[in-house]
TrEMBL record:
SUPFAM superfamilies in the cross-refs: FYVE/PHD zinc finger (SSF57903)
Name of the protein in its database record: ZFY21 protein
Domain FYVE-type: 35-90
InterPro entries (UniProt xref): FYVE-type_Zinc_Finger, ZFYVE21_C, ZFYVE21_C_sf, Znf_FYVE, Znf_FYVE-rel, Znf_FYVE_PHD, Znf_RING/FYVE/PHD
Gene of this entry: Zfyve21
Upper classification of the organism: Eukaryota, Metazoa, Chordata, Craniata, Vertebrata
Keyword entries, A-Z: Metal-binding, Zinc, Zinc-finger
GO molecular function: zinc ion binding
PANTHER family: ARRESTIN DOMAIN-CONTAINING PROTEIN D, ZINC FINGER FYVE DOMAIN-CONTAINING PROTEIN 21
Amino acid sequence: DAKKLVRSPSGLRMVPEHRAARSPFGLDEPPWVPDKECPRCMQCDTKFDFITRKHHCRRCGKCFCDKCCSKKVPLPRMCFVDPVRQCAECALVSQKETEFYDKQLKVLMNGATFFVTLGTSDKSELMVCRLSNNQRYLVLDGDSHYEIEITQISTVQILTEGFTPGGGNTRAIGMILQYKVPGSEEVMQMKFTAGEDFSCNKKLSASWLAAMHKATKLLYESRDQ
């Protein structure tokens, strides 16, 4: 998908030429709180003057003094080329998301193997499941082939085992995915189960499911924007 470099008041961004090609995990730039509506820092209440300048957080758009908005942190969800100024609260959120973009996104794209059951069928098929390079489709390959548009996913339930009343460790062993068929209101369901015969791949499957769980959270946030 072709991309273009654009400049906004917040900084340089590398964005898809067509909005329909944007990542489903992306966020739009927020509108900035107008300077005239912000005589004081929205965090510490310091009054702005010729010495204390105003700075806008690139993630939330609120207005802060330099002390409360000094960190420059990567913000890939808005496609910024370089780290951008963010308030302390937003910087913390963006830093946590860095792990998803640096590690978990690669895990999803590399894929993992699961037994996949469609709907209420009692038959399952061994398939390699991965996220497409443009992040817009969940691709399943086996004897059959499916491509599920990420934006059409309605619910994701991660299946675990190993839970104990005392709060013991749990391990992701599968997931139930529900999604809408484009152009229809019909909701389809797929169940993904890590194969017990592939002990060497259990760790990979668990990592893939954990990454999918994080991806789902970001997807819901993008929708709620």
